[in-house]
Every structure is written in C-alpha cells, then in structure tokens.
Amino acid sequence: MALVLNEEQKLLKESVKDFFDSKEKISALRKIRDEGKDLYDENLWKEMCEMGLTGLIIPENYGGLNFGYVALGQVLELIGRNLVISPLISTSLMSTTIINTIGNENKKKQFLKKIALGEITMSFAYQEKSNFDPYFINTIAESDGDSYIINGEKFYVLDANISDYIIALVKIENGSLGCCIINSNAEGLKTEKTEFMDTRNRGNIEFNNVSVSKENFIEIKLEDLDKIYNIISIGISSEMLGISIEAFERTIQYLKEREQFGVPIGSFQALQHRAAKMFIEIELSRSVVFKALKAIDDNSQNLSELASLCKSKLGRTVKLVTNEAIQMHGGIGMTDDIDIGLFLKRARVAQQSLGDYNYHLNRYADISGY
Amino acid sequence: MSNVDYKVFRNETREWLENICPKSMTGKVNDVAELYWGGINAEFISDDQKHWFEAMYSKGWIAPNWGKRYGGGELDTQQHKILIEEMNKLKCKPPLFSFGISMLGPALLKFATQEQKDKYLNQITKGEIKWAQGYSEPNAGSDLAGLQCKAEDKGDYFLVNGSKIWTSYGDKGDWIFCLVKTDFEVKKQMGISFILIDMKSEGVSTRPIKLISGKSPFTETFFDNVKVPKENIIGELNKGWTIAKYLLTHERQMIGGVGGNDGKFDPRKIASEYTDDIDGKISDPILRNELAEYEMNDKIFSMTIERAIDEEKAGNNSGAISSLFKYYATELNQERMELIMALSGHSQMIMDSEKTKNGYIAKQFLRSKGNTIEGGTSEVQLNIIAKNILELPNK
Question: Which residues pair with B26 in a beta bridge?
Fold first, then answer.
C-alpha cells in the first residue's frame, strides 16, 4: 500500500473536515473553559458518533466500520486542527485499542458495540507519576474469591471525570499486569477533576478497596502493553500533526497580513527562512505519521521503532511550530484575545502524554541496540 | 495508456543485462576515473568497458528515455525505472560518465532547434563529446543572474570575454555550455543567453581549483576574445535564464540524491568501532542521543522521499519540493559527517596513514561542507520555499 490516502480514506477526511468546518469548535472550547458549565459539547459528540467516528477501528461484526488506523489518524489530525474537546481519544483511540488487543470475545461483544453506537465512554488509567513511565504501576489488585480488590491511585487520567468506565492498569500478587474494566460509579472509586492547561477533561482517581469481578479483569503481557502504548502514541502524534499544521497555517497567514515598517513582516528574510524550516519539518512529520499509522494496520513487526520515531519527531515539530507561532505573532500572540496560544497549550500536554521527545529518542536508541 | 507488459520487460531486461554486462563492469564505483568518459580523445581502458558501452548504445540505453532518433531507447518512465532498478541489482556500472546526459540533454530536448538536437544529442549518446558546465562566476554565485561573462554580437559571430568558476572537470571538457550576458541594458535576468562553446577555440583556458578537502575536479575557465558561431545559441537570444532555471531544478534533484548510507560510512558502525559502551550502551549519553537523532531524521527523510514518489504516482502535484529535498539531504549529509568525526575522535584525522586511506573520511567530511553551497545554497532553497510554496511577500 502506498503512502497516500485511498478513496475511502480521502472521502472520510473530506466529510469530517466539512463537518468540523460547519461547527463551533474553538469558541466551544473557550465556553467550556470560561463558563465551566459543560464538560464537552454533547451534541457535537452525538453527531460524531452518528457519523461512525467511534467505530473506525471496530470490526464490522461488532458494529464498527473497520476502516483502520490510517482512517482514525485522519480524524485525529482534524481534531488537532480544530482543538475539538470530545471523548474520542479516551474512548475510541485508547480504550477501543485495549479491548481490540487483549479483550476476549465476551468483552468485545459487551463493550465494542456500545462504543461504536456512542452509548458508552471509557478512560484508560495508566499514569502514576508526573512523567510517563510505562511499567511503574503501584495500583494493586488482590484476589478475593471471584473478585479482585483494587487499591491505589492514578493521575491525570484523560476524561476520567466524564467516562462511564475506567480501564485501570493494575498489578496482581504474582507481579503480572492486568487491566480492570470498572464502572466509574463503583464503590470506593473516587475521581477528582483537575483543571489542565489544555482544558481537556482529566482527573485523578483513587481506588479504595474497589471490588471488580474477575470476569472484568484481563491479564496483559508486556508485549501487548507495549503495542497498546505504541498505538496510542501514534494516534496522539496524528493529533499533534494537526495542531502543527493549523498553528503553522495561521502563522503564515499572519505574516502576510501584519505590517511593520510599512511592509508585511512576511517579507523579512529572517522570518521567511524560519517559516520555510517549519514547512520542511511538517512535511517530514506527515511522512512519519502516515508510515506509523500504516504500520498499525499492516501489523508490522517494527511498530515500537516507528512509534518512537513518530512520537519524538512530532514532539519536536509541534514544539518548534507552536513556539514560532507565538513569537511571530508578537505581543498579540501572548494575549488570550486570539486563538494561537490555545494550540501551544494543547501541544505541551500532548507532548508529555506517553513520553516526550527525549523519552522516545532514548527508547529508539534502546531498540536499536546502542 | 500503454500496453507495455512491465513484467515481461523486467524479465527480458534482467536476462539481457546478466548475459551482456561483463563482470568487471559491475561493483561499486570507487573513483569516476574508472568509468568511460567518451570525448574527442576517448580511450577505453579495457575491452570489457568497450563491449559494455557498445552493447548499451545498441539498445539505446546510454540515454534510455531519449528518442531513438537521438540514439536513445524511447523507454517510458516506468520502463526507465525498471532498467535502473535492474542495473542497481546487478551493480552495473554506468556505461558512460557524462554531464551531457544529465545536465545538458534535458535543456536541448526542451529548447533546442531540430537541427541542434540531431547534432548534439547524437554526439552525447555516442560519447563523442565531453561536456562541461559554465554557470557560476567569481562574482555571481547565489546571484547567478548577476553574471558578467559577455558575448558581443560581431555580425557573423559572438565574441566571448570573461570567466567561469566551479567548472567540473573543466580541464577534461571538449565543449562547455555557458550562460553569457548578451544585453546589458535590460533587467539582469532578461539579458542572458545560453551558448555552446568549443573549448579548443582560441582564447579558452582553465586553471584547477584546490579545495579545503584537497584536489578537486573543479576549474576556473577563462574566455579571452573567443569567437563563437552564432548558431551555437540555444533557444532565443536573451532567453537563457529560463533554460538555466530549468536545468538547475534537474541539478538540484541530482545533488539531493547525495547522502544515503554506503555501509562504510554508517555512523552506527563507526560508533561500534570507536566508542566505549556501558552495558551495551554508548557510554557518552549525549553522543548516543545525537546518533539516535541523526538516524531518526535520516529514516524520516527516506519516508518522505517514498511518500513524494507515491504522491506523484497518484497524480497529486507535489509542487516545488525539490528545494526541500536539496536542502534536507545536504544538511543531513553534513550532520552525518560531523557525527562520524565526533564518534571517531582523532583517529580519522590522520592524513598520511594506510589505515585511514590517507584521510579519506576526513576529506569526505571537508568536502561535505560544499553540499549546502553547490547547486543553490541552503539559504537560496529556503528562499524558494518561502516564495514559491508559502507565497510570502516580497519587500
């Protein structure tokens, strides 16, 4: 398969783009942030579900469209461009990937259809530290008859405060890891919403003797956990690509409009060269994101390598572009009156999710064996 | 569109190459001097070389995509690609080393008269003339259009005076294609013409240029009252700038093709040879980081080339991105050489040792500094991206 979109993917991207173009997005984000009434735009989410965006990576026999990750990546890119707040990343990228990867037939039947229909939302609770550390897990599940009793704490869980279910990454007595699928109303589970720089819904979760039926516990092998992290990293890279493209295009537009010394500032070579370098970095980023998305669909053996290449490159690109975007906008870029700063805010949070530039560069060197 | 069976073509091509290409004409080219150059005083260095050239010429594969009328093979793009792939697989050496094919031919095909095409293109495919390029001047580098070498109309001939610099193999060339000033009264781009000059003409001389990396194929070329026939102008008088721009795009793509790992020059290999490790990791974490960063960018650049090819095949116009490739390939190659020097410490800086092949890597490192200058500096490429792709305003 070539590194270009096929007809199906192109059509999807165009229709999702038209859909977002017709909606309030960034103004919706500001409303959520400033008024604090709604946590996300439920009508927008409903329409996204009706369009089938929640079923892109769900097999047809579970009610999905089975378009694959290249397709989902195009939607995530548009989510990045439009700074859309929705449960799509937590539910349709993270949780769906987990159930697809390690869920048995029963779990798939139980959850995937409902996800595809937009009936439920789910969050993945993995992080227990300020920085990403994949196997640092102190949330313990102790066997108790037909159940596990869970104790511990998870931090910064995306959409924890709005999800119907939490998939918690836990450790059992013999040291093995597993995922518990827990109803967010379960007794002993306490979620505290945190206000984040990017206005996305997030919460810290406390597990205080939370009882989970063993039926809802799935043991996870390290290689499967790596695969899940890889896929989520690539998905978030797609969103970061969208953020980079949008921040870049807005900045180029500004360089053409803003006049100082009687000329558009875009006529200054000092800025032109920096703009050209951003263009080059974005073109390179498009290639690695596409290659990595395709590798998920092709079930490639070198997914870990590609995921780290992808997440580190995009971390660097989105950092460059959002920084230059503020600098080139000058004073107005520092104000909340215009939107450019919102891209910086989302970018930094996304950069830290599942490992930043340095983390993945180091991991790439590890994988390469030097 | 065409009813060529590419599978059959590939099989036949491979079989033909396997049968025809002599063993000695395969393998890595270490020095272009071992290739056949053609030219007025052409000599084959071996019977194999002669046999290989003649066989390829009989197929029209000296210039595979040119018309048969010009000694070409009339292959379509896909066939041409297949031929290159099959030649690469068998490691066949080029049958002719020629700037005529890569740098002059495309301009003749597009801008020359039928008479000129018949004459010069056939000479090129037959390997009868070695061509040199005369664009840059001591005072016209990035500002190429500011060139001063002039051709005055003297009625039945042009009188050429001035000098050119960075002529590759100028001392070995039979003829040179030059940009010359033919009108000083108009805007500088409007007064330039594209002219062909016989280097045996009276008044032509060359001087070799020594680089920071040592001996080089470059020369300065001087024209002192050189008489050139009027029919040697290609295209219209004073319209040479259009031809130059067209050819520079070609050259950019060729230089963009530098870099790539040839094994011996793979920084990872150099690292394993020269650096200490702790538990299998390069002990200097910053150097390790730099190596990873270089490899990351190298891999992603390869993916970008792959994507550009796929986009082109899919009919998506990728536009003026040859500047992107020229810029990135050359910057990356410099990073690679810097990294190799850092990883190997002092050991590759010895210039008089058998072990370092007399400083081979050091010379390559020094030479790589020119990559971001020749064929349009990195800064010129960024200008092109800013103006042509991003459409940022002029002052």
Answer: B92
